[in-house]
Design a protein that fits this description.
heterodimer, A: mainly alpha, elongated, B: 304 residues, alpha+beta, five-stranded mixed β-sheet
């Protein structure tokens, strides 16, 4: 060998291996460059490639999801929220109770697993990891916001409930009540989860937007659109709205009377915090900004769902959403609250009749 | 050697005494240093007689034990005497100062508080009662007096006896957290007559807004929930978490010495409080339109 590489002082064996490796890399490059390899989904993988890809994927999910948070205790509110999002975001590929898998989705490679198969195959934390991060080379998208693990848990809660869920139950959770004909068209998008007319949200994790000031609704939508407020559930829905639709649906919800009282937990422990704050802890009274006399860009909290309030406060504690101007105000305040204070004050606020004054 | 926060530029009896003690120590130490150097030189170059005299037990006892005992005892008496003078006299003015992360709550009266600025009469004895609501802070206005810690759970005392009117700067002198460097204050020394007039005004309620713009600002202040943390006496705002703003516009600085007082700076501080003063407990309010911000700062600036 007279060439400069591999160096002639390497042992013969090592030189042969190096030459083989370079040649193999060249062949692979040549195959890719020539276009001989068939990327057609119609053709499928060979058994060996299929096995290899699946082997790699399954092990990656198991290893990567190992450090996930503690599994959650699922409740009906999470299942309802998960179901409503599933219908819009996932059913198109994975099918839904009572429907067959859409025909076009069946032609994907790999074909998306049917909902029941997927739910049974993976453990809770593995499902959470897959839904949050998506899977490369499969068409499974990542959750639009990596800061909303709470929303992903709602989807997992739904997936775990699916195998025993009746079709009627799924339809009720996922589709909600149809909006009255008088409501603006875009309300159909919101009403599935937030409720329409006299009915409230389908889950206590979803805020009641009936009778909120118009400004609050418009601002929330615009914050989701700009990405200042993050949500894998809300952002995909509001992206397609135009100015006029936003205006119409904000006016519609602002004009609705608050939904009926339902079963509100009563909690007097949070009364002092909501009305007087806790000055020693640097916590101002909630109702000063969230009562009926506050500026119109602040949401009213009397009668709001307790689970929603708890979730929001925890989100501000755990994540940085401070590029939203309103979250920048609430973040430091939420971080001064103890877990106990959060629960007490949320129960108290939700027990107030909507529109209650100081 | 001069300046609003210079130890050498004494404007209060205590600061002058500290400067004098400092000079006495410095000059005394210099003289002793020279004497030691001289003795050392003698010990190395002197004749047999000088060297045996220096090495004798008598000399070591006299210069090594008796002399330091006398000097140190004298200095102790000297400084105790000054401290006794300080503690003995009756206070003409008493002010409670509470250190909080990262500002100063100043109370001239039981229930009436102000913040981040002290106004005191010239030539009169003012006693500060200092406390802390969170961590250890330290109160130091170098050209007026020494520094003293504000300790949670205790009340410390400090006397100020300013000899000249003027504006003197002070700061927190004990690292207390992220915003420590922005925890300053001004001490404004006024003539007794001016002080009396000012104090009467300070203890009174806020001046109602006079212009339409300021009225809009007052309304916004109320609706945006500012009163949850700040009090403005004479209005509904009664929050006690942050500084009392009753006479905010009459103060020389915003945010405990962070910015100088002006309408533009008020607006900037409210919008970017997190950037002007990192670690500050006040959330930034980036929710106001330019018009709203103008109205709000006009109102606050007008609170003279």
């Amino acid at each position: 060998m007279s060439g400069w590489w591999p160096p002639s002082r390497w042992p013969a064996m090592l030189r042969h291996v190096a030459i083989l490796a370079v040649a193999a890399a060249g062949v692979i490059l040549l195959i890719a460059w020539s276009g001989i390899y068939n990327v057609a989904a119609s053709k499928g993988h060979t058994k060996l490639v299929e096995w290899f890809l699946r082997f790699g994927m399954e092990n990656s999910v198991r290893t990567r999801s190992f450090a996930q948070d503690e599994p959650q205790i699922f409740n009906a509110d999470m299942i309802a929220l998960g179901a409503a999002h599933y219908r819009d975001g996932c059913a198109y590929c994975h099918g839904a109770p009572g429907t067959t898998q859409p025909f076009i989705a069946q032609q994907m490679l790999p074909p998306p697993p049917l909902i029941n198969t997927a739910a049974r195959r993976w453990k809770d934390h593995e499902l959470h990891w897959i839904v949050q991060h998506g899977l490369k080379y499969t068409g499974m998208p990542a959750w639009p916001s990596q800061k909303r693990a709470d929303e992903v848990w709602a989807v997992v809660a739904f997936l775990k409930a699916v195998p025993t869920m009746s079709v009627t139950n799924y339809e009720r959770l996922a589709s909600g009540n149809p909006p009255p004909p008088s409501a603006p068209q875009a309300v159909a998008l919101c009403g599935r989860c937030h409720g329409v007319g006299a009915s409230g949200p389908s889950s206590a994790l979803i805020p009641i937007i009936h009778a909120q000031p118009r400004e609050v609704i418009v601002r929330a939508i615009n914050d989701y659109r700009s990405g200042a407020r993050e949500s894998g559930i809300m952002q995909p829905i509001v992206m397609d709205l135009n100015e006029r639709q936003i205006d119409n649906l904000a006016s519609y919800y602002a004009s609705l009377p608050p939904p009926g009282p339902g079963t509100r937990p009563s909690g007097d422990n949070g009364r002092a915090l909501a009305r007087e704050g806790a000055p020693a802890d640097g916590i101002p009274p909630c109702l000063l900004c969230h009562g009926p006399d506050a500026t119109a860009s602040y949401p009213r909290l009397a009668g709001q769902n307790a689970a929603y309030i708890v979730n929001q406060l925890r989100l501000w504690q755990a994540q940085d959403f401070r590029h939203s101007a309103h979250a920048a105000i609430m973040t430091p305040i939420a971080r001064r609250l103890s877990e106990r204070q959060i629960h007490d004050v949320a129960s108290y606020l939700s027990s107030l009749p909507p529109g209650a004054s100081q | 050697m001069t300046g609003v926060a210079s130890v050498f530029d004494g404007n209060g009896t205590q600061a002058m005494q500290i400067a004098t003690i400092g000079w006495v120590l410095l000059i005394g130490a210099a003289i002793i240093m020279l004497a030691v150097g001289g003795t050392l030189w003698l010990a190395m170059t002197g004749g047999e007689r000088t060297r045996s005299l220096l090495g004798g037990e008598r000399t070591v006892t006299l210069l090594g034990i008796v002399f330091p005992v006398i000097v140190l005892t004298a200095l102790l008496h000297y400084s105790l005497l000054i401290m006794r003078n300080d503690a003995a006299d009756e206070a003409v003015v008493e002010i409670a100062v509470t250190g909080e992360q990262y500002w100063w709550r100043v109370s001239y009266d039981e229930n009436i508080s102000s913040a981040n600025e002290l106004r005191i009469p010239v030539g009169q004895r003012t006693v500060l009662r200092l406390a802390s609501s969170d961590v250890i802070h330290s109160f130091w206005a170098p050209s007026l007096a020494g520094k003293i810690d504000l300790i949670p759970g205790r009340t410390t005392r400090m006397t100020l006896m300013p000899e000249r009117p003027g504006i003197f700067r002070g700061a927190c002198a004990e690292f207390c957290g992220t915003g420590h460097a922005f925890m300053a204050f001004n001490v404004i020394v006024m003539s007794t007559a001016d002080y009396r007039t000012w104090r009467t005004h300070e203890l009174g309620p806020a001046t109602p807004p006079s212009t339409t713009l300021a009225q809009q600002g007052a309304e916004l202040f109320q609706r945006a929930g500012c009163g949850g943390c700040h009090a403005i006496r004479g209005t509904g705002a009664a929050g006690s978490i942050g500084p009392d703003l009753t006479h905010f516009g009459s103060r020389t600085t915003i945010g405990a010495g962070t910015l100088t007082m002006s309408e533009a700076n008020i607006a900037s501080f409210i919008t970017n409080t997190d950037r002007h003063k990192p670690g500050n407990a006040m959330p930034p309010f980036r929710i106001f339109s330019a018009d709203e911000m103008q109205a709000l700062s006009a109102y606050l600036f007008g609170l003279k």
